[in-house]
């Protein structure tokens, strides 16, 4: 796709984010079709990418919005998502954020602590409103992913622990401005071992049984997201296996009569459609390695520095004999490195470099560290 547009891309300044809208549409259509087989509702996690053209495509495919800040709630509504399909999660919602969501009558607050329940009830009462809530429960399930993006273990800050539930139910009886409508679970991100989701289903079934024993019928259960993508082979597997993902939940999740099942997918929907484009500034030959110094750095894509994550790196300009390079950025940090000993065609100043699978947690996490300019974006289609 990128090489088909190489002449056009050469005209743009870098660093530059490039989005393949055709691939995005194919991915969204596949996810929605597979979810619809079982009547599942998918909310798109805005934290992955909140660019307006991306959100327009997501909304056009009938996804809801999963938000983790007040500004994400505002962004979703401003970009046309119905408040009836907006979910507000997050372990640290401020009073102002809660009030904004209350004023817009969003679908559900996913609540993560007994203290949050008390504050939400107080703020809802002040407005004469009843807030619909789901309890985010920490299921203590290992997602087998990077420790920074694991969210479902008792050592993590997220969710209400199982041993707290009896006290929480007693508390809810006194909170008359809250309506318990569902349960929420999320165990982590970039999960490629589907057995983790099977284990999640087992735990969700156990919690559902516990709530039924306490005479509580819940309208919906939100099992989170976290489905990973193939960073190593973006062209070989551009669309995740949504068929196997949703089928697993259909097989192992015990859904109550009339109960809705919700998901919150982000990375799996948008990661592969985005590429960070950069130019080589300098080639530096060291004793043990060569350095290809780019005009993009950790300010444009922080994932390799933060998570030690892999992104496929391609030289779009050269077809010369191969060599190895440490591909690094211009930022005054030794962690500003996209890849070590990367095999590339002989690389020279001005060559156009593509850093693939950057559509999720790429542009949305950019910063102005070193007083850098923010990277711009363009959107391609055939």
UniProtKB/TrEMBL annotation:
Positions annotated to bind substrate: 267, 303, 307, 333, 361
Family annotation (Pfam families): Orn_Arg_deC_N, Orn_DAP_Arg_deC
Recorded metabolic or biological pathway in which this protein acts: Amino-acid biosynthesis; L-lysine biosynthesis via DAP pathway; L-lysine from DL-2,6-diaminopimelate: step 1/1
Domain of life, source organism: Bacteria
Positions of the Orn/DAP/Arg decarboxylase 2 C-terminal domain: 16-359
Entry keyword annotation includes Transferase: no
GO biological process per UniProt: lysine biosynthetic process via diaminopimelate
Modification type N6-(pyridoxal phosphate)lysine: residues: 47
Residues binding pyridoxal 5'-phosphate, per UniProt: 226, 264-267, 361
InterPro entries: Ala_racemase/Decarboxylase_C, DAP_deCOOHase_LysA, De-COase2_C, De-COase2_N, Orn/DAP/Arg_de-COase, PLP-binding_barrel
Top EC class, one word: lyase
EC number in record: 4.1.1.20
Membrane-crossing segments per the record: none
Name of the featured protein: Diaminopimelate decarboxylase
Originating species: Pontibacter qinzhouensis
Taxonomic lineage of the native organism: Bacteria, Pseudomonadati, Bacteroidota, Cytophagia, Cytophagales
């Amino acid at each position: 796709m990128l090489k088909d547009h190489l002449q056009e891309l050469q005209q743009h300044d870098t660093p530059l984010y490039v989005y393949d809208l055709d691939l995005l549409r194919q991915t969204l259509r596949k996810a929605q079709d597979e979810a619809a087989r079982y009547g599942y509702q998918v909310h798109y996690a805005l934290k992955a990418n909140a660019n307006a053209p991306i959100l327009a495509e997501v909304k056009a495919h009938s996804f809801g919005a999963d938000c983790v800040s007040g500004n994400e709630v505002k962004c979703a509504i401003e970009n046309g998502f119905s408040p009836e399909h907006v979910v507000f999660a997050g372990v640290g919602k401020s009073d102002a954020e809660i009030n904004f969501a209350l004023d817009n009558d969003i679908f559900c607050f996913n609540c993560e602590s007994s203290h949050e329940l008390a504050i939400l009830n107080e703020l809802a009462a002040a407005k004469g409103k009843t807030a619909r809530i789901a309890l985010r429960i920490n299921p203590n399930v290992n997602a087998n992913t990077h420790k920074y993006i694991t969210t479902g273990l008792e050592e993590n800050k997220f969710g209400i622990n199982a041993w707290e539930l009896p006290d929480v139910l007693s508390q809810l009886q006194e909170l008359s401005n809250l309506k318990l409508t569902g349960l929420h679970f999320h165990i982590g991100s970039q999960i490629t071992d589907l057995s983790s989701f099977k284990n999640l289903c087992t735990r969700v079934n156990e919690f559902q049984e516990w709530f039924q024993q306490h005479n509580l019928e819940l309208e919906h259960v939100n099992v989170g997201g976290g489905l990973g993508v193939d960073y190593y082979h973006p062209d070989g597997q551009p669309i995740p296996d949504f068929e196997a993902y949703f089928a697993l939940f259909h097989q192992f999740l015990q859904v109550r009569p009339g109960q809705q099942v919700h998901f919150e997918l982000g990375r799996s929907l948008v990661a592969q459609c985005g590429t960070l484009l950069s130019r080589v500034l300098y080639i530096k030959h060291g004793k043990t390695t060569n350095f290809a110094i780019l005009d993009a750095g950790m300010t444009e894509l922080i994932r390799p520095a933060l998570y030690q994550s892999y992104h496929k790196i391609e030289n779009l300009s050269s077809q010369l004999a191969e060599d190895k390079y440490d591909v690094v950025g211009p930022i005054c940090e030794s962690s500003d490195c996209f890849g070590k000993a990367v095999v590339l065609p002989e690389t020279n100043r001005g060559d156009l470099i593509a850093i693939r699978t950057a559509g999720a947690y790429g542009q949305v996490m950019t910063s102005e560290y070193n007083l850098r300019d923010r990277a711009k974006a363009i959107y391609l289609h055939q």
